[in-house]
Design a protein that fits this description.
Strand 2, helix 3 (about 55-70) and strand 3 (about 75-80) form a beta-alpha-beta unit. This protein has a single domain (about 1-225), classed as TIM Barrel. It is built from 13 helices and eight strands. It starts with a helix and ends with a helix. The chain is α/β, with parallel strands linked by helices. The radius of gyration is 18 Å and the shape is globular. The longest helix has 18 residues, at about 230-250. It has an eight-stranded parallel β-sheet. It has helices at about 1-5, 25-35, 55-70, 85-100, 115-130, 140-145, 150-155, 175-180, 195-200, 215-225, 230-250, 255-265, 285-300; strands at about 10, 40-45, 75-80, 105, 135-140, 160-165, 185-190, 205-210.
Length: about 300
Protein backbone atom coordinates (compact mmCIF):
# COMPACT_ATOMS: atom_id res chain seq x y z
CA UNK A 1 0.00 0.00 0.00
CA UNK A 2 1.10 3.56 -0.67
CA UNK A 3 0.67 4.45 3.01
CA UNK A 4 3.37 1.95 3.99
CA UNK A 5 5.79 3.47 1.47
CA UNK A 6 5.63 6.89 3.13
CA UNK A 7 4.70 6.15 6.74
CA UNK A 8 7.45 7.15 9.15
CA UNK A 9 10.10 9.73 9.94
CA UNK A 10 11.58 11.53 6.93
CA UNK A 11 14.31 14.09 7.69
CA UNK A 12 14.55 17.15 5.50
CA UNK A 13 18.05 16.85 4.04
CA UNK A 14 20.52 19.64 4.81
CA UNK A 15 22.62 21.42 2.20
CA UNK A 16 26.24 20.25 2.27
CA UNK A 17 28.97 22.74 1.35
CA UNK A 18 32.76 22.72 1.22
CA UNK A 19 35.04 25.40 2.64
CA UNK A 20 34.42 27.58 -0.43
CA UNK A 21 30.64 27.35 -0.13
CA UNK A 22 30.24 24.99 -3.08
CA UNK A 23 28.15 21.81 -3.03
CA UNK A 24 30.13 19.04 -1.32
CA UNK A 25 29.33 15.74 -3.04
CA UNK A 26 31.29 13.60 -0.59
CA UNK A 27 29.50 15.12 2.42
CA UNK A 28 26.12 14.56 0.73
CA UNK A 29 26.83 10.86 0.32
CA UNK A 30 28.28 10.57 3.82
CA UNK A 31 25.29 12.27 5.43
CA UNK A 32 22.84 10.20 3.38
CA UNK A 33 24.48 6.98 4.57
CA UNK A 34 24.48 8.30 8.15
CA UNK A 35 20.73 8.97 8.15
CA UNK A 36 19.98 5.60 6.58
CA UNK A 37 21.96 3.98 9.40
CA UNK A 38 19.70 5.71 11.93
CA UNK A 39 16.63 3.92 10.60
CA UNK A 40 14.74 6.78 8.99
CA UNK A 41 11.93 5.99 6.57
CA UNK A 42 13.15 8.34 3.88
CA UNK A 43 14.66 11.69 2.95
CA UNK A 44 13.12 14.93 1.73
CA UNK A 45 15.70 16.53 -0.53
CA UNK A 46 16.13 20.15 -1.65
CA UNK A 47 13.41 21.67 0.46
CA UNK A 48 13.55 24.63 2.84
CA UNK A 49 16.04 22.90 5.13
CA UNK A 50 18.16 22.18 2.07
CA UNK A 51 18.37 25.93 1.30
CA UNK A 52 16.91 25.29 -2.15
CA UNK A 53 15.90 28.89 -2.82
CA UNK A 54 19.55 29.94 -2.59
CA UNK A 55 20.81 27.28 -5.00
CA UNK A 56 21.02 27.06 -8.77
CA UNK A 57 19.07 24.47 -10.73
CA UNK A 58 22.30 22.61 -11.53
CA UNK A 59 23.28 22.53 -7.86
CA UNK A 60 19.93 21.07 -6.91
CA UNK A 61 20.33 18.39 -9.56
CA UNK A 62 23.80 17.60 -8.26
CA UNK A 63 22.58 17.29 -4.66
CA UNK A 64 19.73 14.96 -5.57
CA UNK A 65 21.96 12.80 -7.77
CA UNK A 66 24.40 12.18 -4.94
CA UNK A 67 21.62 11.42 -2.45
CA UNK A 68 20.13 8.92 -4.89
CA UNK A 69 23.52 7.31 -5.47
CA UNK A 70 23.41 6.14 -1.86
CA UNK A 71 19.68 5.99 -1.06
CA UNK A 72 18.03 4.54 -4.15
CA UNK A 73 16.27 1.28 -3.36
CA UNK A 74 17.07 1.56 0.37
CA UNK A 75 14.69 4.26 1.62
CA UNK A 76 11.92 6.49 0.28
CA UNK A 77 13.19 9.66 -1.41
CA UNK A 78 11.00 12.72 -1.99
CA UNK A 79 12.53 15.49 -4.12
CA UNK A 80 11.27 19.03 -3.66
CA UNK A 81 11.31 20.52 -7.16
CA UNK A 82 9.55 23.87 -6.87
CA UNK A 83 11.39 26.90 -8.20
CA UNK A 84 10.20 30.44 -8.76
CA UNK A 85 9.14 29.77 -12.32
CA UNK A 86 7.38 26.87 -13.98
CA UNK A 87 10.11 26.08 -16.51
CA UNK A 88 12.79 25.48 -13.90
CA UNK A 89 10.39 23.49 -11.74
CA UNK A 90 9.54 21.22 -14.66
CA UNK A 91 13.22 20.71 -15.43
CA UNK A 92 13.86 19.66 -11.84
CA UNK A 93 10.82 17.36 -11.85
CA UNK A 94 11.92 15.58 -15.04
CA UNK A 95 15.43 15.19 -13.64
CA UNK A 96 14.11 13.77 -10.37
CA UNK A 97 12.02 11.21 -12.24
CA UNK A 98 15.03 10.23 -14.35
CA UNK A 99 16.89 9.40 -11.12
CA UNK A 100 14.05 7.21 -9.87
CA UNK A 101 12.81 9.19 -6.85
CA UNK A 102 9.67 7.94 -5.16
CA UNK A 103 7.89 11.28 -5.22
CA UNK A 104 8.29 14.92 -6.10
CA UNK A 105 6.89 17.78 -4.02
CA UNK A 106 6.33 21.47 -4.55
CA UNK A 107 5.38 24.57 -2.62
CA UNK A 108 3.23 27.17 -4.38
CA UNK A 109 5.09 29.92 -6.27
CA UNK A 110 6.22 32.51 -3.72
CA UNK A 111 6.21 36.34 -3.70
CA UNK A 112 3.21 36.98 -5.97
CA UNK A 113 0.00 35.81 -4.32
CA UNK A 114 -1.48 33.77 -7.12
CA UNK A 115 -5.12 32.62 -7.24
CA UNK A 116 -5.89 28.97 -6.68
CA UNK A 117 -6.43 28.24 -10.36
CA UNK A 118 -2.91 29.50 -11.22
CA UNK A 119 -1.32 27.48 -8.41
CA UNK A 120 -3.22 24.38 -9.51
CA UNK A 121 -2.00 24.82 -13.07
CA UNK A 122 1.56 25.29 -11.80
CA UNK A 123 1.44 22.07 -9.77
CA UNK A 124 -0.21 20.04 -12.52
CA UNK A 125 2.30 21.28 -15.10
CA UNK A 126 5.14 20.17 -12.85
CA UNK A 127 3.45 16.81 -12.35
CA UNK A 128 3.12 16.33 -16.12
CA UNK A 129 6.90 16.70 -16.39
CA UNK A 130 7.27 13.63 -14.15
CA UNK A 131 4.22 11.62 -15.26
CA UNK A 132 5.28 8.35 -13.62
CA UNK A 133 6.13 9.81 -10.21
CA UNK A 134 3.96 10.48 -7.16
CA UNK A 135 3.25 14.15 -6.44
CA UNK A 136 3.04 15.67 -2.96
CA UNK A 137 1.62 19.14 -2.31
CA UNK A 138 3.67 21.19 0.16
CA UNK A 139 1.44 23.44 2.26
CA UNK A 140 3.50 26.02 4.17
CA UNK A 141 1.39 29.20 4.23
CA UNK A 142 3.53 31.09 6.74
CA UNK A 143 6.39 31.18 4.22
CA UNK A 144 4.70 30.72 0.85
CA UNK A 145 2.12 33.42 1.57
CA UNK A 146 -0.80 31.26 0.43
CA UNK A 147 -2.58 28.32 2.07
CA UNK A 148 -3.88 25.13 0.51
CA UNK A 149 -7.66 25.36 0.49
CA UNK A 150 -10.02 22.38 0.59
CA UNK A 151 -11.38 23.33 -2.84
CA UNK A 152 -7.89 23.48 -4.33
CA UNK A 153 -7.05 20.08 -2.86
CA UNK A 154 -10.23 18.57 -4.31
CA UNK A 155 -9.26 19.97 -7.72
CA UNK A 156 -5.71 18.62 -7.41
CA UNK A 157 -7.04 15.17 -6.55
CA UNK A 158 -8.32 14.91 -10.12
CA UNK A 159 -4.65 14.35 -10.93
CA UNK A 160 -4.04 10.62 -10.21
CA UNK A 161 -0.39 11.26 -9.35
CA UNK A 162 -1.33 13.42 -6.34
CA UNK A 163 -0.99 11.15 -3.33
CA UNK A 164 -0.54 13.47 -0.39
CA UNK A 165 0.22 16.73 1.39
CA UNK A 166 3.20 17.79 3.44
CA UNK A 167 1.38 20.02 5.85
CA UNK A 168 3.45 22.67 7.62
CA UNK A 169 0.59 24.93 8.66
CA UNK A 170 0.35 25.37 12.42
CA UNK A 171 -3.29 24.31 12.97
CA UNK A 172 -3.24 20.53 13.39
CA UNK A 173 -6.88 20.43 12.31
CA UNK A 174 -5.62 21.01 8.75
CA UNK A 175 -4.16 17.50 8.86
CA UNK A 176 -7.56 16.09 9.74
CA UNK A 177 -9.23 18.18 7.03
CA UNK A 178 -6.85 17.09 4.27
CA UNK A 179 -7.02 13.45 5.37
CA UNK A 180 -10.82 13.60 5.32
CA UNK A 181 -10.83 15.00 1.79
CA UNK A 182 -8.19 12.62 0.47
CA UNK A 183 -9.53 9.45 2.00
CA UNK A 184 -8.09 6.49 3.87
CA UNK A 185 -5.09 5.96 1.60
CA UNK A 186 -4.21 9.65 1.29
CA UNK A 187 -0.78 10.58 2.65
CA UNK A 188 -0.56 13.54 5.04
CA UNK A 189 2.75 14.42 6.68
CA UNK A 190 3.12 16.56 9.78
CA UNK A 191 5.45 19.47 9.04
CA UNK A 192 6.08 21.55 12.20
CA UNK A 193 8.56 19.58 14.30
CA UNK A 194 7.18 21.07 17.51
CA UNK A 195 3.88 19.28 17.03
CA UNK A 196 4.78 15.89 15.58
CA UNK A 197 3.02 14.00 18.36
CA UNK A 198 -0.11 16.11 17.94
CA UNK A 199 -0.02 15.79 14.17
CA UNK A 200 0.22 12.01 14.37
CA UNK A 201 -2.79 11.86 16.67
CA UNK A 202 -4.71 13.97 14.15
CA UNK A 203 -4.09 11.50 11.33
CA UNK A 204 -0.64 12.22 9.90
CA UNK A 205 1.10 9.02 8.79
CA UNK A 206 4.53 10.41 9.57
CA UNK A 207 6.55 13.57 9.60
CA UNK A 208 8.96 15.54 7.46
CA UNK A 209 11.01 17.90 9.58
CA UNK A 210 13.91 20.31 9.58
CA UNK A 211 15.37 19.23 12.93
CA UNK A 212 14.97 15.49 12.32
CA UNK A 213 18.45 15.20 10.79
CA UNK A 214 20.25 16.24 13.99
CA UNK A 215 18.31 13.85 16.25
CA UNK A 216 16.37 11.32 14.11
CA UNK A 217 16.21 8.76 16.92
CA UNK A 218 14.12 11.14 19.02
CA UNK A 219 11.44 11.56 16.36
CA UNK A 220 11.45 7.87 15.48
CA UNK A 221 10.77 7.16 19.16
CA UNK A 222 7.86 9.64 19.24
CA UNK A 223 6.32 7.92 16.20
CA UNK A 224 6.83 4.49 17.75
CA UNK A 225 5.19 5.58 21.01
CA UNK A 226 2.15 6.92 19.17
CA UNK A 227 1.91 3.71 17.16
CA UNK A 228 2.04 1.74 20.40
CA UNK A 229 -0.76 3.81 21.93
CA UNK A 230 1.48 5.53 24.47
CA UNK A 231 0.27 9.07 23.79
CA UNK A 232 1.43 10.38 27.18
CA UNK A 233 4.93 9.05 26.60
CA UNK A 234 5.01 10.57 23.12
CA UNK A 235 3.95 13.99 24.39
CA UNK A 236 6.51 13.86 27.18
CA UNK A 237 9.21 13.19 24.62
CA UNK A 238 7.80 15.91 22.37
CA UNK A 239 8.34 18.37 25.22
CA UNK A 240 12.01 17.39 25.32
CA UNK A 241 12.27 17.83 21.56
CA UNK A 242 10.71 21.28 21.85
CA UNK A 243 13.19 22.29 24.54
CA UNK A 244 16.00 21.37 22.17
CA UNK A 245 14.37 23.22 19.26
CA UNK A 246 14.11 26.37 21.42
CA UNK A 247 17.86 26.23 21.98
CA UNK A 248 18.58 25.56 18.30
CA UNK A 249 16.81 28.76 17.24
CA UNK A 250 18.24 30.97 19.97
CA UNK A 251 21.68 31.61 18.43
CA UNK A 252 22.87 34.41 16.17
CA UNK A 253 23.51 31.85 13.45
CA UNK A 254 20.68 30.43 11.36
CA UNK A 255 18.98 27.26 12.64
CA UNK A 256 20.66 25.12 9.99
CA UNK A 257 24.09 26.60 10.66
CA UNK A 258 23.63 25.63 14.31
CA UNK A 259 22.41 22.14 13.41
CA UNK A 260 25.37 21.53 11.10
CA UNK A 261 27.77 22.59 13.85
CA UNK A 262 26.13 20.11 16.24
CA UNK A 263 26.29 17.31 13.67
CA UNK A 264 30.01 17.99 13.30
CA UNK A 265 30.45 17.77 17.09
CA UNK A 266 28.29 14.68 17.63
CA UNK A 267 28.79 12.71 14.42
CA UNK A 268 32.06 13.99 12.98
CA UNK A 269 30.39 14.85 9.67
CA UNK A 270 31.27 18.28 8.26
CA UNK A 271 28.33 19.68 6.28
CA UNK A 272 29.84 23.17 6.06
CA UNK A 273 27.98 26.36 6.84
CA UNK A 274 24.91 27.94 5.30
CA UNK A 275 24.60 30.02 2.18
CA UNK A 276 24.27 33.80 2.35
CA UNK A 277 22.05 35.63 3.18
CA UNK A 278 21.47 33.08 5.95
CA UNK A 279 23.66 34.11 8.93
CA UNK A 280 26.59 31.92 9.97
CA UNK A 281 27.28 31.01 13.59
CA UNK A 282 29.49 33.32 15.65
CA UNK A 283 32.03 32.76 18.44
CA UNK A 284 29.36 33.80 20.91
CA UNK A 285 27.16 30.92 19.66
CA UNK A 286 29.71 28.21 20.44
CA UNK A 287 28.94 27.69 24.17
CA UNK A 288 25.24 27.36 23.45
CA UNK A 289 25.92 25.01 20.53
CA UNK A 290 28.05 22.76 22.75
CA UNK A 291 25.40 22.86 25.48
CA UNK A 292 22.69 21.89 23.00
CA UNK A 293 24.83 19.08 21.61
CA UNK A 294 25.19 17.72 25.16
CA UNK A 295 21.45 18.04 25.76
CA UNK A 296 20.66 16.11 22.58
CA UNK A 297 23.07 13.38 23.68
CA UNK A 298 21.48 13.18 27.12
CA UNK A 299 17.96 12.93 25.71
CA UNK A 300 18.93 10.29 23.14
CA UNK A 301 20.74 8.25 25.78
CA UNK A 302 17.60 8.34 27.93
CA UNK A 303 15.48 6.67 25.25
CA UNK A 304 17.82 3.85 24.27
Amino acid sequence: MIIEKYSGIIPAFYACYDNNGNVNSLAIEQFTAHLISKGVKGLYVCGSSGECIYQSIEERKQILAHVMKIAKGKITVIAHVAANNTKDSCELAAHAESLGVDAIAAIPPIYFRLPDHAIIEYWNTISRSAPNTDFIIYNIPQLAGVALTPSALREMLKNPRVIGVKNSSMPTMDIQTFKSIGGENFVVFNGPDEQLAAGLTMGAIGGIGGTYGVMPELYIKIKNLIDAGDVKGAFNLQSKANEIISKLVSCHGNLYAVIKAIIKIREGIDLGGVRSPLPQITEEDLPKIKETARLIGDVLNSIK
